[in-house]
Amino acid sequence: MVRARVRAGAADERQLLLELEITPGSANRARLNRSPLRRVREILGLLRTVVFSPEDLAVVKGDPAERRRFLDELATARWPRLAGVRADYDRVLRQRNTLLKSLGGRSSVAFGDAGSTLEVWDSHLAAAGAELLEARLATLAELMPHVAKAYADIAPSNNDARADYRASVVQDAGLSRVELAAALQSAMRERRAEEISRGMSLVGPHRDDIVLSLGTLQTRGYASHGESWSYALALRLGSFHLLRSDGVEPVLVLDDVFAELDDTRRDRLAAGVSAAEQVLVTAAVAADVPDLLRGRRFQVSLGRVVAEDGTDE
């Protein structure tokens, strides 16, 4: 059987051993200090990491789902219980969509009982959606000052990095979770006929987007490759600094990031992350990594990991 095992040790006030077993086609398993966890998501938050990789360019240039996932993962890193909220939201959304599809073409008489059931799913979706939306709005508001500074440090320009949350309901960062839930339910009622006709939920956090901009222009469609790359990197560095401001010292992982940067931006980035407690850097070309991040180096070749001093790891 093909499987992967990941093991990491962490220390803050206590020593922790985290283990994750990934098996394709089967349920993943997690252990804490060699004791099995009931749910894999219980391991979230025990070792916090911020990872930048070339795939993060999709957050800036890709579909709204990429930006929603980025923000949800960051919010979950801050408040691990959101993993359960997200799972509940996705479960209710699937069941509500199934019901909406089944209602298509029904007569008003036959709609009766199913309509009452839909009201119940509306309530559940609004409750989970409001909690998720509240976390997104709070996280984005606190994140963007860090992102703007990180972008300015990496790629100085006259264009400030900005982000605007575009919700499927009228929203305000000052609304309470109860008020957000009420707004979601009201919007569902207003669009009920359209939702039944299309057989899908048209209201909720799963339909939202985060519009990223440099100055007055949106990054998607207008930013150059270099600007998009710098913005994607700034989002991760901003995430790192946000978690630090929450009192958490995350592990920072930079996966092949320096290959896309010129010497000036490499040095600026290295200076910006050198204060991190632990930084892991990968590079296809060793010379791409600035001397400021020299640290201990390993060579990976043909499945073998060799330390710079020649010893196997």
How much helix, percentage-wise, in residues?
40-55%
Largest sheet: 4 strands, antiparallel
Query: Structural class, from helix and strand content?
Result: alpha+beta
- Shape from CA axes? globular
Point out poorly predicted stretches.
Answer: none
Give me the number of helical elements: 9
Terminal-residue CA separation: 25 Å
What's the total count of β strands?
12
Report the order of strands and helices: EEEEEHHHHEHHEEHHEHEEE
The spatial strand order of the largest sheet comes to 1-2-3-4
* Beta-strand percent range: 15-25%
Radius of gyration, rounded? 23 Å
Q: Mean pLDDT, as a whole number?
A: 87
Task: Describe what is shown at a glance.
The chain has 313 residues and is α+β, with helices and mostly antiparallel strands. It contains nine helices and twelve strands.
List the helices and strands and how they pair.
Layout: E1 4-11, E2 15-22, E3 29-32, E4 35-36, E5 49-52, H1 57-61, H2 64-78, H3 82-103, H4 112-154, E6 161-166, H5 177-190, H6 192-198, E7 209-214, E8 217-218, H7 219-222, H8 225-245, E9 251-255, H9 263-273, E10 279-282, E11 298-301, E12 304-307
Parallel strand pairs: 5-9, 9-10
Antiparallel strand pairs: 1-2, 2-3, 3-4, 6-7, 7-8, 11-12
